[in-house]
Amino acid sequence: MLKYTDQMGQVLELAYTPKRIVSIVPSQTELLAHWGQEDKIVGITKFCIHPESCFKNKTKVGGTKKLNMSVIEALQPDLIIGNMEENEQEDIEYLKSKFPVWMSNIKNLDDCYKMMSALGELLDCRAESEKMIRTMKHEFSLLSAYLPDAGKKKVAYFIWQEPLMVAAGDTFIHEMLKIAGYCNVFSGHQRYPQIQPSELQAAEPDLIFLSSEPYPFGEKHIAYFNHLCPDVRAVVVDGELFSWYGSRLLAAPEYFKNLHALLA
């Protein structure tokens, strides 16, 4: 038996490299496909929209927080890949009673690299995972040279409209904001708190970021925030590049550079 430890400290014992995988984390679904593992994926969530071929052809097992257990059981996976934040503990405990479940726990880039390394070993695609890690580390190491005003601009990052919710401290988004060169005005809060318009005004951000996901903020929402904070620029940002912790991160450094240039 082969033993693997996930990012929750749980040990999995597998007799062979998994051949039937259910991924209940969108960013990790895309990651596996990027590594050439798409043929092994038998089930995904309705939010696993990348790559398109996977979204079109794989069995949907519900949402990340509302899984259809009977569908998953019918697929008879030999591995389920989940995430501490995106999936419900009760669901994970149930699935663990029936199948091997590997859990990620991502708070920062270092956690991403560890997740990639561990899954690369588990799925026997070490070369692909090591190459991706090297590339990401190199690209992110160059980013600071393009951010002369790093940390000076204060940002409020919204993930939801009604009620108003922001990404605060102790989140991956918070860490990515720092890497992108911004100061999170709600860093003193935890996770994803609801806030009042008066709290936004009191925080005095220089910029308001409206994430394209999980709430689909668009240009039509900018007027509302301009009304709340007339002197603050509100922009829609690509939420996937601030919150997805798989292969999509390859595009993040360039996106952050372009965002700084746009908002200079």
Describe the structure.
The chain has 264 residues and is α/β, with parallel strands linked by helices. It folds into 2 domains: 2-140, Nitrogenase molybdenum iron protein domain (Rossmann fold), CATH 3.40.50.1980; 147-263, Rossmann fold, CATH 3.40.50. The protein has 11 helices and 14 strands. The chain has helices at residues 26-34, 52-57, 69-75, 89-96, 109-122, 126-143, 172-179, 197-203, 222-228, 239-243, 252-263, and strands spanning 2-5, 11-14, 21-23, 41-44, 59-60, 62-63, 66-67, 79-83, 101-104, 153-160, 165-166, 182-184, 207-211, 233-237. The strands form 4 sheets. It has a 5-stranded parallel sheet, sandwiched between helices. Strands 10, 11, 12, 13 and 14 form a 5-stranded mixed sheet that branches. A two-stranded antiparallel ribbon has the order 1-2. Strand 13, helix 9 and strand 14 form a beta-alpha-beta unit. Helix 5 packs antiparallel against helix 6 (126-143) and helix 6 packs parallel to helix 11. The protein is globular, with a radius of gyration of 19 Å. The mean pLDDT is 96.
Descriptors:
single chain; 264 residues; alpha/beta; Rossmann fold; 5-stranded mixed β-sheet; 11 helices
Shape assignment: globular
- Counting helices, strands and paired strands, the structural category is alpha/beta
CATH class designation of the largest domain? Alpha Beta
Q: What separation lies between the terminal Cα atoms?
A: 55 Å
What is the name of the CATH topology of the largest domain?
A: Rossmann fold
Rounded average pLDDT = 96
Radius of gyration of CA atoms, rounded to a whole number: 19 Å
- Uncertain regions spanning at least 5 consecutive residues: none
Level-2 CATH architecture of the largest domain: 3-Layer(aba) Sandwich
Number of helices: 11
Number of strands: 14
The major sheet is characterized as: 5 strands, parallel
Query: Within the largest sheet, what's the order of strands?
Result: 5-4-3-8-9
